[in-house]
Amino acid sequence: MQEFSDRWEVDRYLSASGYLGETTRPFFVALPKDRSTVSNDEFRRQISQVDSEVLGHLHDGIKGGYDEEKFKPYIGFCSLREYLESELQKRYKEAAPATLALLEQRCSEVNIELERLDSKIQATSDVSHLRKSAMMHAASISNHVGVLIDGAADPAPEQWGKTTEEERSESGIGSWPGVTVDIKPANAILRLYGGAAFERVMHEFRCAAYSIECPPVSREKVANILLAHAGRGGGRGVAEAAAEIARTAARSWLAPLLDTACDRLAFVLGNLFDIAIERNRSRESESGRKTGDMEGYVGFHAALRHAYNSIIKDLAKQCKQLVRHHLDSVTSPYSQVFYENDFHGSFGSSANSYFRHNQASAGSIWFELSDCGQVSHDERMRDQENIPPENNARQKTPGKGTEARDVHRESQMTVPETPSPDQPCDGVKVDVGPRKRIARIGNRNPEQLMKVHNGGSLLFGNGDCGSRSAYTEICSLAAQHFARIREVLVERSVTSTLNSGFLTPCRDRLVVELGLDLFAVNDEKFMDMFVSPAAIEVLQHKRQSLQNRQKVLQSCLTEFKNVARSL
Predict the structure, then answer these.
(1) Cβ neighbours of residue 447 under 8 Å, at least 6 residues apart?
(2) Is residue 551 part of a domain?
(3) 170 touches 191 (CB < 8 A)
(4) Same-domain pairing of 326 and 219
(5) Cβ neighbours of residue 473 closer than 8 Å, sequence gap 6 or more
């Protein structure tokens, strides 16, 4: 101020033109030089004295003074205080309606929350209220599990889904038993859950099953099975021995796969509980209402989780029994799996195919041999016992007729040796004294029966000297039978059984099963899930905190109403 001597200089400075803009009006304030600690009243006196000195200097010390009408409201600390107070009052007036409404809303929310906590504390002893809330919560979780099975993308699969490798490691199951190759189903690297993850495991099971072939069988095993069948008679032979080997291999190699599939599927469904909880929480926060407020009841949530896991384990156990039953059925000696190709082909082919199907289906009960071009001597003689001789008018000398020749021919008949897995199919001639009756051969055509009399092997193929050994033939047939068992089991039985055994109960009966487990108990046992000293203490602490907040908000509301009325 000591630098100004003329009015134009002071007016130019006070206008702040050139660097603050036309609409901006600065305030010019001078503070006392005394920086020592003083009281508030003394500081106010000093400020007022400085303002008087500044205005006096501008009025009397400057030649021509200054534009008081224009600049006096912006000079001095008192002017600044008046402006700030008026501006504050103006802002209060503008904000008063919205602020009052907000304070009233906050107070109302706290009051509602306090009422809810009071009712919740009171409900800890109200069994009917707790049952209702718990049943609504369990029903909501069950509905969300069904939605996830049917297909959903909420919550985010990127966060809640799992890849195939993660499912294997987290379930603790690892690779498929007996499978040496690395099974990578479609979409293995995608994070899936629910019905999508279930179907991926089903596809992985199919890949694992079809990667297993009939394992090699030692010659000793083949010999034990084949020789036992030959010793019992009945003509089951090579085909039945191969079928028995295939059935044994299927039971030992496919059964672990079925158990693993059930365990993997149970793990997928078990993961849905946490996802359903998250989905339920998200839906409640979006809608602003809760279907059964179970917050804080740790015992109930633990019981609900345990009940869900128990249901999934029971389903896995039942499914294991069902698929094992299908495995036992398809590997039963009475199963018609090996004859189904003839059955399906008979409808579109000739009558011979229909005849083959009938012959195969009834082979274990009755053998049709009447159309054979050549039958055994005993059968022919028995058939002729009740038929009068025809074209036989000329008597022959005893011992030199047909009977004598038949006896002589039978004594020179080729009889097969005891079969061996490595033995080729050559017959060995031996002299046989008394007549032997040839056992009937199940599922053999007349040409095979002819070869018994002509020196061919009964159990080892077509009687050609260059044919492959019985061991090779049995292994080949066993591999075909094993593939047929695997195909029927995987494509017809297991898929539908696992879908109906796991998914249908989870979609349709989960809420009932949870209700029976959790709520079909007496009041005393039911309240064990809720009456927890720790839970009640948490509720009371939260209630106390809300009461303190209620007092603060109510005090603010009252004070602001008074301020608003005075504005």
Answers:
(1) none
(2) no
(3) no
(4) yes
(5) 238, 242, 460, 461
Axis crossing angle, helix 164-171 with helix 237-270, rounded to the nearest 10 = 90
Long-range CB contacts (within 8 A, 24+) of 53-56: 54/1, 54/28, 54/30
Whether 68 and 139 map to the same domain: the answer is no
Pick from 540, 526, 534: which is nearest to 127 by CA? Answer: 526
Please report which helix (H) or strand (E) contains residue 470, including its range. helix 470-488
CATH number for the domain that contains residue 179:
1.20.120
Three-state DSSP at 429 gives strand
Q: What is the pLDDT of residues 433-488, one digit of tens each?
A: 333 333 333 344 444 433 333 333 434 434 343 345 778 888 888 899 999 999 99
Question: Measured between alpha carbons, how far is 104 from 98 in angstroms, rounded to an integer?
Answer: 10
Question: Is residue 346 a part of any domain in this protein?
Answer: no
Query: Considering the entire predicted model, what is its pTM?
Result: 0.57
What's the average model confidence in pLDDT over 168-182? 89
CA-wise closest residue to 191 among 149, 159, 168, 148: 159
Mean pLDDT is lowest, of 107-121, 203-217, 447-461, for 447-461
* Same-domain check for residues 49 and 163: no
- Number of structural domains (the chain) is 2
Burial (CB < 10 A; 0-12, 13-18, 19+), residue 422, is exposed
Count of helix runs (H) and strand runs (E) in the chain: 23, 2
Same domain flag for 61 and 151: no
Question: Is 179 in the same domain as 268?
Answer: yes
Residue 75's φ and ψ, nearest 5 degrees, are: -115, 130
Q: Is residue 356 part of a domain?
A: no
- Judge whether residue 540 has pLDDT over 70: yes
Asked if residue 464 belongs to a domain, the reply is no
pLDDT higher than threshold 50 for residue 37: yes
Segments forming the whole domain that contains residue 46: 7-75
Give the helix, strand, coil percentages of the chain, each rounded to 5: 65, 0, 35
Comparing C-alpha atoms, which of 17, 80, 16 is closest to residue 50?
A: 80
Residues 185 and 49 reside in one and the same domain = no
Instruction: Identify whether the C-beta of residue 148 lies closer than 8 Å to the C-beta of residue 283.
Output: no
